[in-house]
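Subject — a protein and its fold
Fields — amino acid sequence, C-alpha cells
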Amino acid sequence: MLYLGCPQWSSTAWKGNLLSSHCKNADMLHEYAQVFNSVEGNTSFYADPSIESLKRWRDAVNNDFKFTFKFHRRFSHELQLTNIDDELTAWFNLFEPLLPYIGQIMLQLPNSFSPAQLPLLEQFISKLPDNINYGVEVRHGEFFKKGDAEVALNRLLMANNINRIAMDTRALFAVKANTEALIDAQQKKPHLPVHAIATGEQPMARFVIASLEHDYKRYYQPWLKKVQQWLDEGKTPYVFFHTADNRQAPLLARQFCQDLNYNHRVLSPFIGEKEATQSSLF
C-alpha cells in the first residue's frame, strides 16, 4: 500500500481543481479524502485541536484514510523531550478518537537537537504507546555525515521500528528565491542531504519543489526507484508533496504517481476537474 498526500487538506487555491469550485471550508477534508489517502497533519505541531475538531475530522474521511499528525512542538522544541510524562499522556488522551485513523505520528526535532541528546530521544521513545507507528525527522547536520552519530540514530530507530523521515528540498533550493512564496519556503525549510533509508516498515518521504514550471523530475527520479523498492519489500511508504505555496502540490503528487505507474485514486480526475468537464457538456 502506498499513501500519498499533501502538507494540508484545505486551500482555497484548490477550488475548481482538486476541490469543487464551491467547496465550503468545512467540507474540504471530505473532498480531499476522495482523492488522497493521507495528509500531513502539520496543524498539531502548532496547536492542540479541540476534541470536537478531532471527531469532525474522523467523520470526514474514509476508513482507509490515514492522518500523519505531528507531536506538538512543546515536546521537541520547548521541553526538549524532558519532563513530558504528563503532557504526553494528555496528548494521547486527546487524540484517542482519531487513533484508528492515524498512519503514524511524526516527531520533528529542531536543528539544535544534536547527537549528544540521543539518550533523550531513546527515553522519549520508551514512553510511547506501542500500538501506533512513529516517524522521526532530524535536522542537525551531524546526522547526515554517515558517521557514528548517524549510525547511532539509525540503530535506535531500527531497534524500535520507527521510521526516519526523509525531507528532500533539493529542487526547492535549486531555484533562485525571487517570489514571496519561494523566499518564505527557503527560509523555513531545511537544506540538508537526502538519506533515503527505511528504519521502519512505513518509510516516509517529504518532497519539496519550487513549482511545476521549474526542473524537478531529475530530483525525484531516484524516489521512483526507492518507493518501488519499498513496495516490493512489502513496506508501506508514505510520500508527501510540497510546492513553495502548495497550490500545485496535488498536481505534483499526481505526476509522481503517473511516473511510478502505480494505480492510485489520485490518477482519477480531481473533483473540480470532473465538475469542469460536466459543465462543458452543456
